[in-house]
Amino acid sequence: MPACLDFSSMWVYPGAIARKGPSCVLKIYNTLSGQLEEFRPLNDGRVHMYTCGPTVYDFAHIGNFRTFVFEDVLKRYLRFKGLSVKHVMNITDVDDKTIRNSGATEPKKLREYTDRFSRAFLEDCKNLRIDKPDLIVHATDHIEDMVRMIQGLQAKGYTYEKEGSVYFKISNFRDYGKLSKLNLEEIKVGARVDVDEYEKQDARDFVLWKASKNGEPYWESALGPGRPGWHIECSAMSMKYLGETFDLHCGAVDLIFPHHENEIAQSEAYSGKPFVRYWMHGEHLIVEGERMAKSKGNYFTLRDLVAQRGIDPLAVRYALLSVPYKRQLNFTFDTLRQADSSLKRLQDLMLRLTTEALRPGTNDKIQALMIEALQKFEQAMDDDLNTAQALAAIFDWVRDLNTTFAEKSLRQEDRAAALQTMERFNAVLQFRKPLELHLDDRVQSLIEQRNQARKARNFALADQIRDQLYELGYSIEDTKEGVRWKKR
Ligand code: AMP
Ligand code: ZN
Question: Any idea which fold 41-282 has?
Fold first, then answer.
């Protein structure tokens, strides 16, 4: 991967400052090695990335979206570093929870139920500006791939059958536990588990294919009538689309065990090759010390926050990414309010950069400001995606640029460079609220009336109109160049 980005090459003005500074290689924490590692994709310049998608038994909550936003920032940052990314995400549309909640007795009904939540999930992603994966793959569209893989595991002696179900024999896979650092002594040899989720202390032979049960949806297959276990879907689909060995696999920390541990066992037993080179796991969104989870009832969906509390989805995105993914994030409404005011500061700067009249020419000091901000941003993100530090660099830059407006040192040609800089930050973080460049007629006319009142030295009326504008969501500032407005 290209080590340092040469930000100077992007400027519109000539003779820009050469890139200096420490080497800029992306380092990420790999759960597999337990260490911070330099990220190098298998194929030069191209990253193959798989992220575990939602289980579509209900609407996703913003805890789930903390993970999807982290993965989105990661993917966008890989692109910022000049890499191309092929991203595959699954949709779990058959498992214990989807069957329980749908009450479906056949695959078609199950799919009708889950499709509604798949659609809702993709809508929420769009509102959170989560880039769409190149491939979104549904488990129920890949039953045959899973069956073939299970047959492959059978042929290699990694499975056994019991009452029509097929289990993976974990004692036959030497490396079992290498991701979650499981103590192999604790494994209960021969004991089985049929449920999708269980704790580390209950490490058992897990189910690959579940024999059909009365009243549950099932598929006819070479393994007999039944349905796949949860873990096999990600192994079968990721290897199908990304190859038997690929670069990156992500999820939240709760997936390390058993889901990802079991994925490694199945995939490596099947192919005889290393499965994934870098595993990245995000920490949870928590509420009063506990993980936000459906089962705990302490959750908010994005749609609830938007419809019932008028919260901007971008504020949710910003709040979720503002704390580095390796640290737990405590959810509060105050965090969302602060996020919204940060977004507004950026929006104000954009408005000034877009609309204010500037003197012609350029200013070298300002070029240096842009390059410094981009370098600091890159250094922070290279450090295992330290988004908090990256945002600190951006807001220092925002403050400095505002100062250049006040000092009138910002020139016309610096404007394009500043806008490009903002665009580079935004390409990774997606925090730019749309600009409102045109005021609606009513607001425009109130501003006019206030100007008239001020000219006539009727300050009482001018203040009254200012209050009216405030109520309408606009704050007004009188400057030498005239009135400046911004959305509150
Ligand atoms: P699920 O829909 O349950 O399969 O979960 C989708 C993703 O959200 C998985 O990567 C989970 O690990 C993740 N997740 C679940 N709860 C939280 C939480 N409170 N904070 C962050 N990620 C979570
Ligand atoms: Zn998965």
Answer: Rossmann fold (3.40.50)
